[in-house]
Specification:
This protein is an alpha/beta fold. The protein has a single domain, classed as 3-Layer(aba) Sandwich (Glutaredoxin). The protein contains 5 helices and 7 strands. A 7-stranded mixed beta sheet has the order 2-1-5-4-3-6-7, with helices on one face. α2 packs across α3. The radius of gyration is 19 Å and the shape is globular.
Length: 195
Amino acid sequence: MNRIIKFLKPWAGAVLIVAALHFTGLLSSISFLAQSAILKTGLMNASAETVKEDIDFNYDFQIKDLNGNRLDFRQFENKVVFLNLWATWCGPCRAEMPTIQKLYEKMNGDPNVAFVMLSIDKDKDLPKVIRYLKDKEYTFNGYMPSGYLTEQLNVPSIPTTFVISKEGKILTKEVGTTNFNTNRFYKFLKEESEK
């Protein structure tokens, strides 16, 4: 019995620490700091490698802008779409956002590329989403789902980012915190927009 208690004691302490961090809201802050530090190493740079399978993207869903206006996702057909699923409570999502903002700025309003930053926060948290994007001075467009998302977007973890071609094919899918502010990824997106 003593051996079992000795074995479980460190694990119980770790579980209590994680639980305390979770309930105080500090866990996402620690995750944000850790992910931000790792991003700076270059280990999490976007691959800019296209997926091997030829997968059509399903545009059959609606989103709403941060003013509550409903939009059919089909409005982005015939554009390259940078679609990022994130949430305000997600530390890894927040860690990669500065790299997305820098990529967005580099694209300089390219009319052939649409940045869709799709927050999966609950509807009641819309003011929190608006405040977060405003406080961080992000200039890309924020959106939230309007109803159900397609099966493709029911991802097991966030952040998850898709790049969709003008022809409606999924070009890349990045799961987890990713540095999108690289010359390679910018060149990839620019070349797709010019096709």
